[in-house]
């Protein structure tokens, strides 16, 4: 690990270094992007230069084959060998254009790829079109449209190249080149369609309108190029429009345009100013000069793209160098300033650590001991100037003072809450004890079975209320009032815990080892077992049983309480076991977070005597609580269990309470239930007079005590009709919730 000093310095310097380093990274990234853009522009220019020649050859080849094809269709005298050569030239031009198109499609967008694929499709249809032309089955309109489709795809590619141009100047030059290429294609189409008009035949209406539109378009567009800003291109355009071939072609096209108009019957067509040979020569001259002009403009666009790439590279390198110089200067200044700040921050760190490691623990110790806290400990002085560092130091001092004040307030609040809990608990205990005394008096003097059963139920509820009052005492950090001096048999202790639960009739106690629990732990262990038994009975089906068994183990005695409920989810079960193993400090936060206090009470009682309590899934799908009573709480007693019965008497109750377990059952009067005519049967013995105590032998005394014991057991096993629960495992539907 790095030393703290290095850690602080690194963090402080990062505040100043990060912006500088970010500037360097941004500069390098921007330079890389610009250089990459420059390389793309240079690649684009190279591909444009390499594609000019194949594109011009393909356009010239398709225009030648289109002209010869349409002239043959119109009946013009053409050489078959000339058509064959034109077809071979177009095939070779398409093969030469394919590599350039592939490279351009890789550089361009998806539309460029679509245009390239469309060109390939037309090339594959070329053989079928030629066969139809040779057979005379292909109309002139279809032949014209097919051959015109290839230049249209080239023009579409030019438009895409304009959109992907590296700069505006290159795009503008490509736009002018596109207009020249369109003019070249329009002039070629006019020448191809003119053969029909030369033969004084009528063109279809659509083609006639096409002829007039194209003838006017290309001548107007080329004449406008004379005013081009580029002097060389303007001079080339001026030379073209002032030449004899341009003038002758214009005169020829003017006459042919008149022939596209409807004529009256018998009217003769205007005389042509040129022969076919002269017309062909003039068209070839204009076609060549237009192609040269288009190539010159494409060359200029390629030059502009190359210059733009070089300029971009130069500017990006200069910008990167400038950013690097600025960043290095910023880093140097940051280092100087950071060293000054670090020294002050180190002082602030040392002072803050002293507050946290020395003064604050001392303050908390004094508060815990009930001592007073002086002003220096409660609000220490933090004098580090008036700038931001000084303000941070003042904030640390203020936070320390606030923490001390909060600790004082919390300590007072916790003491007040505990005092309130203890007061409420003691008041409740007094009332419950008085209530139990009154119930004891009523039970001892009552012989009516129905009323006696009601008193038993009230007695049971009062016993459970006493346990609730003891819960408050435990929450407040006190100890319950029930205490035993002598050891108590484990079985009697379990029975006492069962008697404090609402569903005691469903509890079955199995085999329990003969062991005696030390008196000081009896009360807390009864309370602990009662909480667990009450939960097990309350959150399992009403018809199910709760089984209690015990075994002697190496570390003491293990008691298992098993129910047949729905169980608890694994996550909740793990959380409850963690709390049972390590009881949390009960405070205002704990109380407001979860008002179910059973887990807290059980964990506190278990921790007080080092008793282990763990919950697990039972064989029935419910919960099995395993309570391990350590050997330190068990004692060996030489006397018999009957001699230890007074050990269950509590030291916190009145003498009347010491004589109470349960009141004796109602006494059955002999022949009291017989019919009147049988009541005085001579064979029946008369009952003794009221108040007379009959003399009994040893066997009769034994039978009497056995009957009392059986009656008491049947009374406990009967359903008292009580319902509900004062506390237990609570949770969502079907789950086995935690103790409260």
Give a topology summary:
Layout: H1 4-74, H2 80-107, H3 110-135, H4 140-163, H5 168-198, H6 205-224, H7 231-241, H8 244-259, H9 276-369, H10 375-378, H11 388-444, H12 449-475, E1 488-489, H13 490-499, E2 507-509, E3 516-517, H14 519-538, E4 546-553, E5 556-562, H15 570-581, H16 588-593, H17 598-609, E6 612-617, E7 623-630, E8 634-635, H18 655-658, H19 698-717
Parallel strand pairs: 2-4
Antiparallel strand pairs: 1-3, 3-8, 4-5, 5-7, 6-7
Largest sheet at a glance?
5 strands, mixed
Identify the strand order in the major beta sheet: 2-4-5-7-6
- The termini sit apart by 47 Å
Give the percentage of residues in beta strands: 5-15%
Helix content: 55-70%
What's the helix-strand series?
A: HHHHHHHHHHHHEHEEHEEHHHEEEHH
User: Based on helices, strands and strand pairing, what is the structural class?
Assistant: mainly alpha
Sum up the overall morphology in one term.
elongated
Average pLDDT works out at 75
Multimeric state: single chain
Determine the number of helices (DSSP H or I, runs of at least 4 residues): 19
Total beta strand runs:
8
Question: Which segments are poorly predicted (pLDDT under 50) over 5 or more consecutive residues?
Answer: 640-660, 662-693, 719-740
What Rg, in angstroms, do the CA atoms define?
A: 56 Å
Core attributes:
disordered C terminus, 740 residues, 19 helices, mainly alpha
Structure explained in plain terms:
The chain has 740 residues and is mainly alpha-helical. The radius of gyration is 56 Å and the shape is elongated. Helices cover 67% and strands 5% of the residues. It has helices at 4-74, 80-107, 110-135, 140-163, 168-198, 205-224, 231-241, 244-259, 276-369, 375-378, 388-444, 449-475, 490-499, 519-538, 570-581, 588-593, 598-609, 655-658, 698-717; strands at 488-489, 507-509, 516-517, 546-553, 556-562, 612-617, 623-630, 634-635. The strands form two sheets. It has a five-stranded mixed β-sheet with strand order 2-4-5-7-6. It has a three-stranded antiparallel β-sheet with strand order 1-3-8.
């Amino acid at each position: 690990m790095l030393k703290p000093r290095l850690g602080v310095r690194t963090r402080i310097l990062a505040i100043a270094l990060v912006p500088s380093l970010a500037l360097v990274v941004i500069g390098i990234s921007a330079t890389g992007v610009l250089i990459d853009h420059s390389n793309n522009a240079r690649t684009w220019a190279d591909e444009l230069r390499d594609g000019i020649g194949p594109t011009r050859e393909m356009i010239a080849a398709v225009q030648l084959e289109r002209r010869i094809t349409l002239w043959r269709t119109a009946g013009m005298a053409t050489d078959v060998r000339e058509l064959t050569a034109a077809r071979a030239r177009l095939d070779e031009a398409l093969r030469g254009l394919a590599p350039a198109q592939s490279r351009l499609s890789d550089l361009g967008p998806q539309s460029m790829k679509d245009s390239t694929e469309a060109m390939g499709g037309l090339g594959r249809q070329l053989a079928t079109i030629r066969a139809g032309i040779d057979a005379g089955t292909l109309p002139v309109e279809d032949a014209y449209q097919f051959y015109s489709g290839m230049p249209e795809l080239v023009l579409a590619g030019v438009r895409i190249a304009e959109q992907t141009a590296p700069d505006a100047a290159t795009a503008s030059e490509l736009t002018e080149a596109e207009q020249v290429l369109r003019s070249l294609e329009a002039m070629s189409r006019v020448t191809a369609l003119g053969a029909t008009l030369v033969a004084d035949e009528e063109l279809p209406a659509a083609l006639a309108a096409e002829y007039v539109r194209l003838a006017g378009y290309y001548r107007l567009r080329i004449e406008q190029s004379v005013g081009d800003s580029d002097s060389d291109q303007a001079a080339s355009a001026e030379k073209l429009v002032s030449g004899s071939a341009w003038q002758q072609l214009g005169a020829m096209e003017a006459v042919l345009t008149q022939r596209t108009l409807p004529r009256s019957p018998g009217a003769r067509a205007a005389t042509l100013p040129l022969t076919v040979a002269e017309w062909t020569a003039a068209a070839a001259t204009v076609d060549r000069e237009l192609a040269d002009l288009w190539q010159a403009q494409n060359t200029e666009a390629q030059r502009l793209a190359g210059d733009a790439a070089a300029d971009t590279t130069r500017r990006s390198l200069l910008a990167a160098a400038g950013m690097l110089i600025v960043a290095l200067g910023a880093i140097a200044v940051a280092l100087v300033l950071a060293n000054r700040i670090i020294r002050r921050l180190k002082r602030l760190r040392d002072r803050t650590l002293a507050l946290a490691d020395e003064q604050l623990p001392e303050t908390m110790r004094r508060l815990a001991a009930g001592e007073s806290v002086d002003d220096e400990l409660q609000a220490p002085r933090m004098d580090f100037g008036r700038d931001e560092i000084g303000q941070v130091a003042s904030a640390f001092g203020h936070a320390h003072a606030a923490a001390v004040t909060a600790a004082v307030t919390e300590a007072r609040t916790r003491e007040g809450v505990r005092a309130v809990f203890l007061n409420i608990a003691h008041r409740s205990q007094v009332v419950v004890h008085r209530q139990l005394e009154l119930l004891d008096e009523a039970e001892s003097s009552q012989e009516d079975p129905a009323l006696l059963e009601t008193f038993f139920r009230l007695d049971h509820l009062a016993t459970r209320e006493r346990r609730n009052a003891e819960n408050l005492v435990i929450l407040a950090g006190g100890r319950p009032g029930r205490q035993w001096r002598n050891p108590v048999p484990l079985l009697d202790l379990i029975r006492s815990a069962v008697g404090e639960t609402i569903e005691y009739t469903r509890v079955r106690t199995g085999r329990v080892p003969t062991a005696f629990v030390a008196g000081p732990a009896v009360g807390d262990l009864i309370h602990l077992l009662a909480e667990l038994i009450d939960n097990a009975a309350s959150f399992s089906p009403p018809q199910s049983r709760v089984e209690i068994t015990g075994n002697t183990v190496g570390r003491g005695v293990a008691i298992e309480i098993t129910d047949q409920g729905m169980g608890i989810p694994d996550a909740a079960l793990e959380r409850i076991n963690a709390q049972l193993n390590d009881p949390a400090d009960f405070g205002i936060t704990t109380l407001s977070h979860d008002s179910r206090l059973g887990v807290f009470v059980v964990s506190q009682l278990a921790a007080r005597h080092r008793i282990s309590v763990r919950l697990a899934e039972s064989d029935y799908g419910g919960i099995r609580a395993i309570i391990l009573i350590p050997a330190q709480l068990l004692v060996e007693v030489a006397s018999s269990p009957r001699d230890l019965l007074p050990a269950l008497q509590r030291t916190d109750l009145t003498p009347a309470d010491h004589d109470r377990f349960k009141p004796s059952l109602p006494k059955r009067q002999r022949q009291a239930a017989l019919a009147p005519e049988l009541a005085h049967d001579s064979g029946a013995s008369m009952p003794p007079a009221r108040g007379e105590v009959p003399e009994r032998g040893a066997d009769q005394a034994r039978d009497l005590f056995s009957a009392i014991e059986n009656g008491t057991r049947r009374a406990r096993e009967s359903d008292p009709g009580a319902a509900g629960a004062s506390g237990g495992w609570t949770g969502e539907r079907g789950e086995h919730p935690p103790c409260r």
